[in-house]
Amino acid sequence: MAERQRRRTAGGTVVAAGLVVCVGLGAGGCSGGATADAAPPADPVDTLHRAADSLVAAGSSRARTSMEMATGGTRVTIRGEGGYDFRRQLGRLRVLLPQDPAGTVEHRPITELLAPGALFMKNRGAGVPADKWVRVDTGTLADGNLVTGGATDPFAAAEVLRGTRTATYVGTTELAGTRVRHYRGTADLAAAAKDASKGGTRSLAAAAKGFATARVPFDVYLDEQGRIRKVRHRFSFVNGQHKGTVAVASTTLLFDFGAPVDVRLPKAADIYAGRIAE
């Protein structure tokens, strides 16, 4: 940790693994605009570098996620809800896919288990038995699973901030009854990967190479303990089908810190090893 701190102070649709994924609206908003604070906090960049560590200190929380993408005149939103254990870097989300454009097909919710370097999905879709899980190595995904699963891993969302290059303090506001400080800035995914936890390094490094740009604009809201209450990233990736750049907005809300989170990863026998239908 000391070494990490020293380094800091020194310086439209996507199809992945056959899952159609899109981008997220903020699952919630702030009441009113940010107001100037008479006593601004310490250096915003350093504060945001330490935001992920504050979550580890908190232990766990409940989470809501949302992704939204607008392309070709169509806007698609995917929402998720669950909990995350920041000390073990394990999470469980229930992800709701949008209806088909015609509105005739209603998708079953997908259960996602998040773990360092891996994403497990149940109710993955056609060709996968109902009692089986699909496992994806997030280090092999072009986006490091910041977008693929339809929900950004909450700890990965926090670790993106380890790569904060520029940041400004906007002011204080209120979010779900909690007084928070609003920061706006830009992070670099390659820098974040170098300072990330062991479990997050490969995924963030993959995203730095796979996205259209490694620069990620963000807005984040921290409480008095420095914990993230809301973070909204704007990712940019290349849509291989249409050979164009697509903007993705991913929002993560964290609340109810300390809530118990029970995540049990599937046994090898419960993981589907067959071909996944596209």
Task: Please sum up the structure shown.
The chain has a single domain (2-255), classed as outer membrane lipoprotein receptor (LolB), chain A, CATH 2.50.20.20. The chain is built from six helices and 14 strands. It is an alpha+beta fold and 278 residues long.
List the helices and strands and how they pair.
Layout: H1 2-10, E1 14-16, E2 19-21, E3 31-35, H2 44-49, H3 51-58, E4 60-71, E5 74-85, E6 90-96, E7 110-115, E8 118-122, E9 133-137, H4 154-160, E10 164-175, E11 178-188, H5 189-195, H6 201-210, E12 215-222, E13 228-239, E14 244-255
Antiparallel strand pairs: 1-2, 3-10, 4-5, 4-14, 5-6, 6-7, 7-8, 8-9, 10-11, 11-12, 12-13, 13-14
Helix pairs in contact: 5-6
Key attributes of the depicted protein:
278 residues, outer membrane lipoprotein receptor (LolB), chain A, twelve-stranded antiparallel β-sheet, disordered N terminus, alpha+beta, 6 helices, single chain, two-stranded antiparallel sheet
Can you offer a commentary on this structure?
There is one protein chain. The protein has 278 residues and is an alpha+beta fold. The protein has one domain: outer membrane lipoprotein receptor (LolB), chain A (Clam). 17% of the residues lie in helices and 41% in strands. β13 and β14 (244-255) form a beta hairpin. The longest helix has 10 residues, at 201-210. Residues 1-32 have low confidence and may be disordered.
